[in-house]
Design goal:
Elements lengths: L9 H5 L2 H29 L3 H18 L7 E2 L2 H14 L4 H17 L11 H19 L8 H16 L9 H16 L28 H33 L5 H17 L6 E2 L1 H10 L5 H16 L2 H5 L3 H15 L7 H6 L2 H17 L2 H20 L4 E6 L5 E10 L1 H4 L14 E11 L2 H16 L3 E5 L3 H10 L6
Parallel strand pairs: 4-5, 5-6
Antiparallel strand pairs: 1-2, 3-4
Helix pairs in contact: 2-3, 2-4, 2-11, 2-12, 3-10, 3-12, 4-9, 5-9, 5-10, 6-14, 6-16, 6-17, 7-8, 7-14, 9-10, 9-11, 11-14, 16-17
Length: 493
């Protein structure tokens, strides 16, 4: 899903009026798409809408300066709201501050230890499932703003879709979603149409709150109460942010610093905990809108998004409240459709893809849709991919038995990687009763990867020893030889 937009740095964008305007308008459109979603998620989390909006401003601006992937939009996300909701509903909003701060500390440690490299083990099929499920979730969450609406709602929906899809054929100087939102809002105001708007999603009044007060004791009881939620917030936030960064890497065909993205997210969550009170992570729908749809490539777009959101919250809350929800829903539906990797679900592609790969993608999508949680889908997909991979690799080894011309010795040549999945059956490849007194196991085409393999080789040697034969292992590479030498004879085989 690479984009045709050129790659720009901040300085290059500042010297290019065309790219600078693209970054500015991308940030503005992203904010307009971000605000109603943040407000909706605040209801899920059980906190005041203004709390989520302020936290989103803090998260967006902090990640603009500290994050490792330019273009990623970070705010009070729905996945985090779903995680903290039970804690807030059962014990109160006052426990959010220590929970989010603890989650931030976990994310900082994760990033500094370089654990973000674990993302390389997320298979492509899981990534495709993640992206496709995200498109489905974004689309489904916008449907209630359209279905059951009045005739004016449907008319505004059609007008928004038409502007978003048709305007780019004539000009791309201004992002079509921004034009659509402005035009549709103007139509509603001039015609005095009574349709659901952003203000109806929750109260938005000017001004900013102060620092979040700490009203719970910092003791072991509080820690026991908050740590499961804090750990979930940390892991879900990291997973979605790193997968979003990886997606932007593919769209822009440029690398990012995943470790920096991880610890920066921790710092941003600590800041948002103290000033706002709600945590967050990357908002992949708005990120796709920012990078893929609007063509942003630098930190300028997310800086504009944060500043614009601050302006909307403090000084333009009344005009922002008049934006019809159907216009934002239509824009996000277009984003959802473009988010899905349609090539991955074409019949011609599915016909060529290995069945296990397709199953992993389907399980990832199904889990996300059923649980409404992207993290659960990724975990399910990765675990299934690991199981299927281990099962597949377990059958890739082969053993050739070569008897010497004089019949005094036999050589077993092993081919393929030896680990717990493949080495457990290794003992079945040997003809213990028929072999001569000298047995050679040739591992020049194999590698020892775990203790299970060493235990299997010790077991084979013990069987031959009971029959009065000797077993010699040859051809080990230096790493396998050191590993085997350290464990052989000490595993109780």
């Amino acid at each position: 899903m690479p984009s045709s937009h050129p790659t720009f740095g901040v300085l290059a964008a500042l010297r290019s009026p065309r790219q600078l305007s693209r970054e500015f308008f991308a940030g503005a459109v992203t904010t307009l798409a971000l605000v109603p979603e943040v407000i909706s998620f605040s209801v899920v989390a059980g906190v005041d809408p203004m709390t989520s909006l302020v936290a989103s401003i803090v998260l967006c601006l902090t990640m603009t300066f500290l994050g490792g992937r330019p273009g990623v939009v970070t705010a009070a996300a729905g996945s985090v709201a779903l995680v903290v909701a039970p804690l807030v509903h059962e014990h109160g909003v006052e426990y959010l501050l220590p929970t989010i701060v603890l989650a931030g500390v976990v994310q900082i440690v994760f990033g500094l230890l370089g654990l973000s490299r674990l993302m390389r083990y997320v298979p492509r099929s899981v990534m495709l499932g993640f992206v496709n499920a995200l498109g489905i979730l974004i689309f489904v969450t916008q449907v209630p703003h359209v279905l059951g609406g009045t005739l004016p709602v449907w008319g505004l929906f059609a007008l928004t879709i038409a502007i978003v899809l048709i305007l780019p054929r004539f000009t791309k100087a201004v992002p079509s979603p921004l034009v659509a939102i402005v035009v549709v809002t103007a139509v509603v105001i001039v015609a005095q149409l009574q349709v659901p708007d952003v203000a109806g999603e929750g109260p938005i009044d000017g001004g900013l709150p102060g620092f979040t007060p700490l009203t719970v004791p910092l003791d072991l009881t509080t820690l026991q109460l908050i740590w499961p939620t804090a750990l979930s917030v940390a892991l879900v936030g990291l997973m979605e942010s790193l997968l979003t960064a990886k997606l932007v890497d593919e769209i822009t065909e440029t690398p990012s610093h995943k470790g920096r993205e991880s610890w920066a997210l921790g710092v941003a969550n600590i800041f948002s905990g103290f000033y706002g009170g709600v945590g967050g992570c990357a908002m992949i729908g708005q990120t796709v809108l920012n990078v893929k749809t609007s063509g942003a490539r630098t930190r300028i777009s997310t800086f504009v998004a944060g500043v614009f959101m601050l302006a909307l919250v403090t000084g333009l809350s009344s005009p922002m409240g008049q934006i019809p929800m159907v216009a934002l829903a239509a824009v996000m539906m277009v984003v959802a459709v473009t988010t899905v990797d349609w090539h991955s679900v074409r019949p011609s592609t599915l016909k060529r893809m290995p069945i296990p790969e397709t199953i992993v993608m389907a399980v990832t999508i199904g889990t996300v849709v059923l649980t409404n949680n992207l993290a659960y889908g990724v975990i399910a997909g990765v675990v299934l991919a690991m199981i299927l991979f281990a099962r597949r690799v377990a059958h890739v080894i082969s053993v050739d038995r070569v008897l010497a011309d004089d019949g005094e010795s036999v050589r077993y040549v092993v081919h393929g990687p030896l680990f717990f999945g493949s080495s457990n059956d290794l003992v079945e490849w040997f003809s213990y009763a028929d072999d001569p007194a000298s047995v050679i196991v040739d591992l020049r085409d194999a590698q020892i990867w775990d203790a299970s393999t060493v235990a299997a080789l010790d077991s084979i040697a013990a069987r031959y020893e009971r029959r009065g034969a000797t077993l010699t292992i040859e051809g080990l590479d230096s790493r396998s030889e050191r590993f085997h030498g350290r464990l052989s004879g000490y595993l109780g085989a």
